[in-house]
Specification:
about 0% strand, Aminopyrimidine aminohydrolase, thiamine biosynthesis, Thiamine_Salvage_TenA, binds the ligand Cc1ncc(C[n+]2csc(CCO)c2C)c(N)n1, hydrolase, 12 helices, Heme Oxygenase, Chain A, globular, mainly alpha, about 75% helix, about 230 residues, Haem_Oase-like_multi-hlx
Length: about 230
């Protein structure tokens, strides 16, 4: 088994918990509370900014042009394409995208971005990719799972969202990350492999928690945090 096959198997319970989460199930059924959609977009817009910062660190740690090319391409993808599923949620709640931008991250999203940045700063390329991979991988599987289970047609409320992640182009993106991570895992030491597994698992746990954070409109205990802008 390859490294990514092993970690996928070891974290299967978390993938299943994500598919069964009421927010994700709600996307399939076409029914998600409006506050949860708004909370998700507010957090995810800032999460995507942090994701691009991590790609920036990954570029600075790359020695091979193919890695630099891949990470810079992904920054373009986050800027220009990841906004499509966001627009679907905004349209459903009748909110303008710009109204939901610039909010401080709720605790779980804050934890998630700092976890990725920790591995980006402390680890090598393998560790960074292991921390990043659950993000595209869980979404590809959510898209495919919902497509199969609910067989949405274009008039489904969340068809654009589901189609975006179930699309083959998106699968190609996450497969490329798996392949590169498997190459790096072959050269990694035991200690590095442990750190990569830890980074991957925590990101899967934080993906699950991110859905819960949005669904429960999680906030900091005594009101909003200070925006870092
Ligand atoms: C919490 C959270 N997790 C994953 C994604 C999806 N996503 C964000 S960036 C990216 C990869 C781009 O290279 C993918 C798949 C999201 N939007 N929010």
């Amino acid at each position: 088994m390859t490294f990514t096959e092993i970690v996928r198997k070891e974290n299967n319970e978390l993938f299943e918990a994500i598919f069964n989460h009421p927010f994700v199930e709600g996307i399939g059924k076409g029914e998600v509370p409006e506050q949860a959609l708004a909370h998700y977009i507010k957090a995810d817009y800032e999460y995507l900014n942090a994701f691009m910062h991590v790609y920036g660190v990954a570029i600075s740690k790359s020695t091979e042009r193919r890695d630099m090319g891949y990470f810079s391409e992904q920054v373009g993808f986050v800027l220009n394409s990841e906004t499509h599923p966001h627009h679907n949620f905004c349209d459903v709640i009748g909110a303008g995208y710009d109204e939901l931008q610039g909010y401080p991250l709720p605790p779980t999203a804050d934890h998630y971005v700092k976890h990725m940045m920790y591995h980006a700063q402390m680890g090598g390329l393998g560790e960074i990719l292991a921390a990043l991979l659950p993000c595209p991988w869980t979404y590809v599987e959510i898209g495919n799972h919902l497509m199969k289970k609910y067989q949405p047609t274009p008039n489904h409320t969340f068809y654009p969202w589901i189609e975006f992640y179930a699309n083959e182009d998106f699968d190609t993106l996450s497969m490329a990350m798996c392949e590169r991570l498997d190459e790096l895992a072959e050269e990694a030491s035991e200690v590095e492999l442990r750190r990569m597994k830890d980074a991957f698992r925590k990101s899967c746990q934080l993906e699950l928690n991110f859905w819960e954070m949005a669904y429960t409109c999680e906030e900091w205990p005594t009101g909003e945090a200070v925006s870092s802008k």
